[in-house]
What does this fold into?
Amino acid sequence: MKFALVGVGGAGCRLVDRIMQVEQNSDRSFSGGNVLAYDTDKSIFETLDAVPLDRHVLVGDTHEALGSTGADGDIDQAAAVAQEDRDELHREFDKLDLHEMDAVFVAAGFGGGTGGGVGPVIVEALTAVSELPIYVLGVLPTTAEDATITVNAARSLQSFVTHGDNTLLFDNESWYDEERSLAEQYEELNELLAHRLLAVFAAGERQSADIAENRLDTSDVMRIMETGGVSTLGYAEIAVHNPTTLFQRLRALFYNGEEETTDAIRITQLVKAAANSELTLPCDRTSTERALVVLSGPPHLCSRKGFEKARQWLEQETETVVVLAGDEPRPTADDLRVAVLFSNVTTVPRIEELKESALTAIRDQS
Amino acid sequence: MKLATIGIGNAGTKILDRMLEFEYNTDRNLCRHALAINTARTDLAKPDFVPEDRRVLIGDTHQKAKGHGVGGDVEIGADVAKTDIEEIRRAFDDVEIHDVDAILVSAGLGGGTGSGAGPVVIDELQKMYDEPVYGLGVLPGKYEGGRPALNAARSLQSFVTNVDNFIAFDNDAWRMRDQTIEEGYEDMNRELATRIVTLLAAGEQDNTEVAENAMDSSDIMRTLDTGGVSSIGYASSKVDEEAGLIGKFRGDGQDFDDGATDAAKIKGLVRRAVNSRLTIPCEVSSADRALIVLSGPPETFARKGLESARQWLEQEADTVEVLAGDDPRDNAAELSAVVLLSNVTETPRIKELQSQAVDAQEKIKAQDAVREQEIEDLITDEDNELDPVI
Ligand SMILES: Nc1nc2c(ncn2[C@@H]2O[C@H](COP(=O)(O)OP(=O)(O)OP(=O)(O)O)[C@@H](O)[C@H]2O)c(=O)[nH]1
Ligand SMILES: Nc1nc2c(ncn2[C@@H]2O[C@H](COP(=O)(O)OP(=O)(O)O)[C@@H](O)[C@H]2O)c(=O)[nH]1
Ligand SMILES: [Mg+2]
It folds into this structure.
């Protein structure tokens, strides 16, 4: 799938930057440089490596209300400024070649003033100008962060989910290491999310690609996302022995006697591992409305029986009848990867907890 | 018989491609016209035998398809075909319909393009031509899950009511073991192509040197005339110079018509075909009409054998409408028997598919009904103390 990337606020801009870097280091082309990075705080732009200068958009610099460091967590102020400067924000969309795209991802940290305040305005604006699905890639804060951030996240979640076509979430609380500061883990967390995201949404965009037998077309992915609501990703990979030269293959023949039977089992187990892995947003998997599973690796190791069994298992596990499965052949790869997308999950303890803490914070203030 | 053939969607196109491959490899000339129609640009790049200029991409301007498939959505598949019907019609401009006996449309029923666009195209063909339009449809395997089953159960109705006969292929029955995804459906598709082409190519060389017992296109069409769902059985045996049918006859120079053993062998071959894995498993006795084609080197044919096979099948299929004929192929390496069981009404897999579809439909409806509310509940608090940002 081809998608434009729009980052809003610190988290959003860093995520877009990271995703672009992964794109540049791969043989895939999905955004093709169709990116924008919005922030109220111009210091963020210096930290971006991949997003080009002409795609940096400073929001609200003419507004007294915002100090030199931007919104600084004030979500309502940020939203108000964005609403006022709507036309200017709009104008930047012209830099995106939306006609060549299948969708847009708007990335934002929901707890930030900018991400949570400007983000929904941008999502709404994009929905108004484009027929494309506008997906949100959102980050939920940790429980250790300030009350304001918690309240911001609980409130902006409502706006993002209402205005976006689907909201894919990553929960910092579930993933960060409490022993270290959150900020120093941003890079690794973003890297991890970028890989999961691309495993699903950029499968099939490999330049040198052999055509997959069970290719996931863009329409397939869009159909799974069509539910709206909140979504989450699971992932697993294993290293495999993939002799690519003739000599290696000949040698491999001598000790691969049991390959046939174990290939199927390995694939089934890997899909189960991905589905049961720590999700980007933990949830009750049976509350999923639709699911998608992508298997990527050397074609000769991708057992059809194993994959079919796994898909069937996932259908039972998620208690849904819409579970699509596709593969991505990577002939010379030395690993097998499985990514699972759970779309419209509705039982999410972490969101309940977030709302509770936000309510407590609001009540404490008044 | 001579056909105009159309593959719709991914499965439909791949099967058409294997049919063309089979006729190329066996010097047959069944498919006088071949056309592939799809909504996914990448899939249209796959065929080896369908000429480039006979591949039509539809729905590339459709907002939801845009040349990358319809995501298994039957409604979009149908919608796209309706919108682009002019383009589809134009693709038929150079089809000399008088040169063909019938039109065959192949499609997989579990997806969105074959199952949705298929019936629309068939409907149009029926309006355009008087020639019969046959369907060759693949039913999804049970393991594919609820959604494909629902697509197929719905599409099956449209296919069967709109075609003159629907030849079914059941992926469940043909599921192969121990294969990679890449090898995928390749073997299955070859098996299907062998059956359908061997059957329908009989009588393609109208009024040549052929034997008087030769199968005629009109016999095949008559058998298919029943409408409904049909199944094909197949069996073959190698013709080699030293042993087997032909070797023996060449050896003693007898007229093969008198060779009792050979008649028995032919009858055995037909029996094997009927008892083989059918394209869709069914109760043979539920067939309305049946037809036997014996294809191979003419010196291996045994008239008596075929006649007694025919009589045997009359009893098995519990119908007096059983036709049998030869399809002489001088250089064939095999002698094969194909049996068409037309309008079979007892097909357990279709029943099963329908109940799987009903379950799926209920689940999907139930999910649809609560979706909005569940999302609302997830993002808001009970007393609405949390306000959205915008
Ligand atoms: N995973 C991840 N989370 C981040 C990152 N940066 C920030 N966050 C989270 O997102 C929340 C919002 O922070 P920012 O994105 O810096 O805030 P902002 O959108 O720039 O808003 P203001 O700075 O308040 O104007 C934080 O509380 C963190 O929980 C990041 O790079 N990766
Ligand atoms: N026998 C067979 N069945 C297939 C093949 N490819 C797909 N199918 C079946 O056809 C159905 C439709 O798939 P596909 O043709 O890809 O969808 P479409 O392109 O949207 O029509 C699937 O659910 C499978 O049951 C194939 O090559 N051979
Ligand atoms: Mg910031």
In short: The longest strand of chain B covers residues 229-238. The pocket of guanosine-5'-diphosphate (ligand 2) is lined by residues B 9-11, 14, 108, 110-114, 138, 140, 144, 148, 169, 171, 185, 188-189 (CB under 6 Å). The CA atoms of residues 121 and 127 of chain B lie 10 Å apart. Strands of chain B lie at 3-8, 31-38, 55-57, 102-108, 133-139, 165-170, 229-238, 289-296, 322-328, 334-342.
